[in-house]
Design goal:
Layout: H1 3-17, H2 30-40, H3 45-58, H4 62-67, H5 70-77, H6 84-100, H7 108-111, H8 119-130, H9 139-149, H10 158-171, H11 177-191, H12 209-213, E1 230-240, E2 243-248, E3 259-260, H13 270-276, E4 280-286, E5 290-293, E6 298-309, E7 319-323, H14 334-349
Parallel strand pairs: 1-6
Antiparallel strand pairs: 1-2, 2-3, 2-7, 4-6, 5-6
Helix pairs in contact: 1-11, 2-3, 2-8, 8-11, 9-11
Amino acid sequence: MTPEAFSNAVLAWYDQHGRKDLPWQHDISPYRVWVSEIMLQQTQVSTVLGYFDRFMHALPDVHALAAASEDQVLHLWTGLGYYSRARNLHKTAQQVVTQFGGEFPASVEQLCTLPGIGRSTAGAIASLSMGINAPILDGNVKRVLARFLAQTGWPGDSATSKALWAAAERYTPNQRGHHYTQAMMDLGATLCTRSKPQCLLCPLASHCQARLLGTPTAFPESKPRKVLPQKQVVMPLFAHNGHVLLYKRPSQGLWGGLWSLPELDQTDAIATQAAQLQLNTGEHQALPSLTHTFSHFQLQISPVLIHCQASPSVAEGDWLWYNLSAPPTLGLAAPVQKLLQQAAEHLTRC
């Protein structure tokens, strides 16, 4: 199948079946496309829709995002995970305003110099919002091309990635590049899905090597599996008068810049932590445990609700008393948000 026949088949399918009513496809701008592309990394469209609308309502342009506080940005991101995306989003907005006068640079090469923007994301921004002819290779496109070519190897390997990028460049047409980019993402998201591809509806089916082999789901090959190590922590929820004590994590590292609960190695350490914070503690109540899976390990959380008296010394700086009934605008990791909800429900019943 020639590159021209490939792109023509994809575009013909897009004209009839492609998605054209996603929020970022209206009032198209580099800012809206960029935010949507960052949100869609590691996240499904159905999840992103609500987050995107809230984000645009609060921070409608790059100047608003650049001027926002990190807490506000992380608060709007709470629940989406991979919080480095949000921190990079904030940094990039500030760079676009200070270094480029509020206008996104109009080249893939310059876009790639901004925090959190790789080659594929830069290509999507350039293609979808600027009319620049640029290939992309996000997860959906990798799957379509890997199956079409029966490309062996895990896409994260350099040789496999190089082969897929070469294919992406080869098949990207000179005309209607923005429609082709969207079409390839749509094909992977709606037909060429990970577990149940609808090959009979695919415009590339007659030339798809994986389909002809009868093993479409064997491509692309999965990342070699590793047994995730386990880490166990105790998270005390020091509670006083409808508030729970939180601290702000360092900007670098796990849950960087988010507000969280203290992490202790064992329950016996709660008394030491309370003493350091000058808290007078009372009743301790174990809450249901929680498991949170990261890409490289699993975190087993044992939460303990502790009734205590407030101390002014911990209500400032990197510590604050989080109001459960009137939550402040802060960035929270998803498991911490769940634990705070548990604490609020428990305290309401008591």
